[in-house]
Design brief:
With about 110 residues, this protein is mainly alpha-helical. It has one domain. The protein has a two-stranded parallel ribbon with strand order 1-2. Helix 2 packs antiparallel against helix 6 and helix 4 packs antiparallel against helix 5. The relative contact order is 0.15.
Length: about 110
């Protein structure tokens, strides 16, 4: 249980590991190509649920959920959730927008 408490106490560590996971995992593999096509919103919200329900890290989960919400409010959409009047972006650009929003919140 001590490890969970250590991780819970280090918001900066969690945010940096999240960024690294999104940007670099499987970067030059076939699996990485599939990973990059997956909707980054679903990935981030799944990670938020992991933090909230497995590690009781509600504040960090809130940061991620707020970042996703703010990006959606800015009218950015990936192809799978595109609707009229919104701006279509690639999954890479959506990921970059979420990471930028997380950076703004962490500052």
């Amino acid at each position: 249980m001590g490890v969970v408490q250590d991780v819970r106490g280090s918001r900066e560590l969690v945010l940096n590991l999240t960024r690294r996971e999104i940007k670099g995992k499987y970067k030059r593999t076939f699996l990485g190509q599939l990973w990059s096509l997956a909707n980054p919103l679903a990935q981030m919200l799944s990670f938020s649920m992991l933090l909230r329900y497995s590690f009781d890290m509600n504040e960090d989960a809130d940061l991620i959920e707020t970042a996703v919400e703010n990006v959606l409010k800015s009218s950015l959409r990936t192809g799978d959730i595109m609707s009229p009047g919104m701006t279509a972006v690639s999954t890479t650009k959506m990921t970059d927008a979420i990471l930028a929003e997380l950076d703004k919140q962490a500052a």
